[in-house]
Amino acid sequence: MDYRDHQVTLFTSQSQVVVDKIVETGRYTVKNEFISKKYGETSQVFLQAYGWYRQNASQIVERPADGDSAIWSFLNVNYLDYSADSKIIKLHVPIEQIVFFRMSDWNKILNLRLLGTPEEEAEYYERLKKFNVAYEGDVYTTGFYPHLKTELVRSWQKLFQYDHMIKETKNLPFDDIQGGIWEIRNSWVESFTDWGIEQ
Fold first, then answer.
1. How far apart are alpha carbons 80 and 73 in whole angstroms?
2. Is residue 14 one of the residues assigned to a domain?
3. Distance from the CA of 36 to the CA of which of 4, 53, 97, 130 falls in 20 to 30 A?
4. How far is 104 from 110, CA to CA, in rounded Å?
5. What is the bridge-based pairing of β-strands 177-181 and 7-15?
6. d(CA 14, CA 181)
7. For 127-144, how does the pLDDT look when each residue is reduced to its tens digit (9 = 90+)?
8. What are phi and psi of 38, to 5 degrees?
9. Which pLDDT belongs to residue 73?
10. Position 197 pLDDT exceeds 70
């Protein structure tokens, strides 16, 4: 982890519209309309997962009133998603403004899956079979499995299990650690770079 002067170097991939907003207004936050537009017909599932994240991550780092959702950033530029009009933004963010977690864990939550040890997950999926749950996302999106849903949502708290340790030790336990931030401030930006240009 590149940590100095209480700041962590992070990378995020954002559209030119976002870059312009940062330059013009000095900061950028995400609105839920953006998520709806980005994910289209599947946005409802994403909004539910993002809503859970917003509620729980804001207990670790206070969320500004105008920040509907987090901005995903990474400690390694290789984890960024490429899109045609996007720029790579290199940031130096105060460590206390970041929520650290594994990308692979977040992907499980996005897919409305249990987050646990291999043994816990195997046991959970055996129970789904007993209840004849064909699509595991139904546990969260329908009202038919309240006990399973409680267990599922409780397991998601493990998303944040590495945050405190990373902030204490300044070491990363896994390569796929990412950081959720509520805003991008112009004062945090080191550079805006086109894809394909060496960082």
1. 8
2. yes
3. 97
4. 10
5. unpaired
6. 13
7. 999 999 989 989 998 899
8. -65, -40
9. 97
10. no
Q: Where are the alpha helices (DSSP H) in 60-155?
A: 103-110, 118-130, 138-141, 146-155
Cα separation, 18 vs 45, in Å, equals: 24
Confirm whether 90 is domain-assigned.
yes
> Minimal CA–CA distance to 72: which of 57, 62, 60?
57
Q: How confident is the model at residue 34 (pLDDT cuts 50, 70, 90)?
A: low
Residue 52: CA atoms inside 13 Å, Cβ hemisphere, count?
22
The number of domains in the chain is 1
CA atoms within 13 A on the CB side of 147: 4
pLDDT of residue 83: 80
Percentage of residues in the chain having pLDDT higher than 90: 79
- Please say if the pLDDT value at position 21 is more than 70: yes
In a domain, 7, yes or no: yes
Residue range(s) defining the domain that contains residue 57: 3-110+161-185
Q: Is residue 149 part of a domain?
A: no
65: which 2 tokens? 């009133």
Contacts of 30 (CB under 8 A, 6+ apart): 67, 68, 69, 70, 71
The alpha carbon dihedral of 150, 155, 160, 164 has a sign of: positive
